[in-house]
């Protein structure tokens, strides 16, 4: 009897809830998980489409798609940190290229052990992030212009150092195996991506650093008035972005089996498309790590399905561009509906 009495108020409360409130809750769930449902729909569509069903659902294709998103996912997560505090970092892809070349060259040209090469590769990314941080956070230069300049400069330096020749000799076999083999049926690199995603998600959602980054992105002036160190947080976000791009570069070396001079830099727009798509999901209107990874997977699965269905070569490029434009529009509208511009759509700490 007592159990029945305890349940009655809850049932009555649910029945008494206004239809508008229930509709609003459904709408909120739709916004939060819409991209996930869309991803499931894309998977279902290409799984039953006669032109792609057999190859699309094969184990080889699933492993290929997951392996292919490893670098882009880490780059997307890297871009989330500066965007969360109102800054752009367009140099993440070029930074991963430099890190890949440094990692490969350390082994090939200097006979260094794998751990040393990995540290050097990640360190190169941190160094680029540090330069960006000094110019943007300390000297207060425009992040949009500075990081585009960095993204243009770095591939040129790579061409100068390598003379346009890929570095594949002397690269550690265990590193190659890490980039090409599987573990428990999944690509080894995807396990590292999962770990990075979990750590970064926790950092941005459950630590003071993450909450303060979002506060700076929402309103830097108000954040400064309440004592939040805007400059230090911006500095830290850009250095973190560079470090994660460095990790992406090491993964790129593992995936390519060496340092390829023309790889990495072309991953910027897929990463940005994933980040902006991610801002429409999980935590709509705000850049977030889980949304960015879902966005990466959505783009990769869609492109894989289109390719296997026999789409023309120009279709994936058009899809990536359209996804980026639509994602920016939708994420910005969602943020405005919640009372302010999307963090990162402006230089908010000036």
UniProtKB/TrEMBL annotation:
Instruction: Enumerate the subcellular locations listed in this protein's record, separating them with semicolons.
Output: Cell membrane
GO terms of molecular function: transmembrane transporter activity
InterPro entries of this UniProt entry? ABC_transp_permease (IPR001851)
Region spans: Disordered: 1-21
GO cellular component terms attached to this protein's record? plasma membrane
Instruction: Report TM segments.
Output: 35-56, 62-81, 88-107, 113-136, 143-161, 181-204, 225-252, 264-282, 289-311, 317-335
- Indicate what this protein is called per its UniProt record: ABC transporter permease
Q: Which Pfam families match?
A: BPD_transp_2
Arranged from A to Z, the UniProt key words for this protein are:
Cell inner membrane, Cell membrane, Membrane, Transmembrane, Transmembrane helix, Transport
Record field: compositional bias (Basic and acidic residues):
1-15
- Membrane topology label: Multi-pass membrane protein
């Amino acid at each position: 009897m007592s159990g029945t009495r305890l349940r009655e108020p809850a049932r009555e409360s649910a029945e008494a809830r206004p239809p508008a409130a229930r509709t609003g809750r459904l709408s909120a769930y739709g916004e939060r998980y819409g991209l996930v449902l869309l991803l499931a729909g894309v998977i279902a569509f290409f799984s039953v489409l006669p032109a792609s069903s057999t190859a699309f659902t094969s184990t080889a294709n699933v492993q290929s798609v997951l392996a292919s998103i490893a670098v882009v996912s880490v780059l997307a997560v890297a871009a989330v940190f500066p965007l969360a505090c109102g800054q752009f970092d367009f140099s993440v892809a070029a930074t991963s290229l430099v890190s890949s070349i440094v990692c490969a060259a350390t082994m090939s040209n200097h006979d260094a052990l794998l751990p040393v090469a990995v540290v050097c590769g990640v360190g190169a990314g941190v160094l680029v992030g540090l330069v960006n941080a000094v110019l943007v956070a300390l000297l207060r230069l425009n992040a949009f212009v500075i990081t585009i300049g960095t993204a243009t400069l770095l591939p040129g330096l790579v061409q100068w150092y390598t003379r346009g020749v890929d570095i594949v000799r002397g690269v550690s076999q265990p590193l190659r195996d890490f980039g090409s083999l599987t573990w428990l049926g999944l690509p080894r690199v995807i396990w590292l991506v999962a770990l990075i995603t979990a750590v970064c998600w926790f950092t941005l959602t459950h630590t003071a650093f993450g909450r303060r980054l979002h506060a700076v992105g929402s309103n830097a002036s108000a954040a400064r008035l309440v004592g939040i160190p805007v400059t230090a947080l911006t500095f830290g976000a850009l250095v973190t972005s560079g470090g994660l791009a460095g990790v992406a570069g090491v993964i790129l070396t593992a995936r390519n089996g060496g340092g390829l001079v023309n790889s990495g830099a072309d991953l910027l727009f897929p990463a940005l498309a994933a980040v902006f798509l991610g801002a429409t999901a999980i935590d709509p209107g705000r850049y977030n790590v889980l949304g960015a990874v879902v966005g990466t997977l959505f783009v990769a699965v869609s492109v894989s399905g289109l390719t296997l269905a026999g789409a023309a070569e120009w279709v994936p490029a058009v899809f990536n561009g359209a996804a980026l434009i639509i994602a920016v529009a939708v994420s910005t509208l969602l943020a405005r509906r919640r009372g302010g511009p999307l963090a990162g759509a402006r230089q908010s700490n000036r």
